[in-house]
Amino acid sequence: MRSTQAYGRGLQIPKRIYTIEELRLNKIEPEKLLSPRDDSLNYVRNVTQGAAAAGLAAVAYFSGFDIGKVIGVLLGGSFLLVLDQVSNQGGGEALIIDTLGRVIKPSYHDRVTLHEAGHFLTAYLVGLLPRDYTLSALDAFKRYRALNVQAGCHFCDGGFEGEIAAGRLSGRSLDKFTCVALAGVVTEYLRYGQAEGGVGDVAQLDGLLRALQFTQKKADGQIRWAVLNVAALLRRHVSLHDRLAAAMDRGASVGECIQLIEQQLAKEPEALAPSSVVSSGSISSTVEASSGMDSDR
Question: What is the pTM (predicted TM-score) of this model?
Fold first, then answer.
């Protein structure tokens, strides 16, 4: 039986309202973290659009500038794009762009791997068990045989979903969700100085807080605490994060990834919270709930 001594025992910062100044004192610029700018894939999209335009020009040239053929190609391409948006929520386009991104910009692959490893490690440390993961749109398509499934980490979140279904979400569950949702963007900010991926994660969290009818002040407080908490966890475990990313990149199973985390943290007991603190929990409040959970890039 595998040891899970480190599960849910990451050392977390106290839960309270933190100011923007406190984030900056901890070398975090919120505008670069919470407003992901997908420069890598935007560049790939521009290259792809340029190639498509060049292809259209080639069709026109080799057809003797036959307007009928050019319009036919344009209409055919437009139809495929609309069909993809309607039937797959743009999954086909995402698959192409994501795959090309790994060819055109190799650094994109490393960024995505670290991003997902950040979700995985943070989830395990705050007490949310990872169920499976994929690191690319192509991996997700091969595993699920569906174009509308994004790459990312998925979790054993039955308890969370049960609370959502009951219309009551505990503060402790909300804290876990918030930390895991922001782990990817925090990872990218810490490693690259600017988050690119994670637009969906931030939007999903924003949707949940709106559904819970959080005031802007309360939502800001929840997010600032989670950002500082996740940053503290990932800064404390940089080496482990790197090793986990490498294992995930090799296609390690979830069990193997957990074993790696446990073996590393068994050597660092000072980096874990006492079991008594974890079992007692720090938050006991509940809030009205009406949303769901996932964590994609």
Answer: 0.80
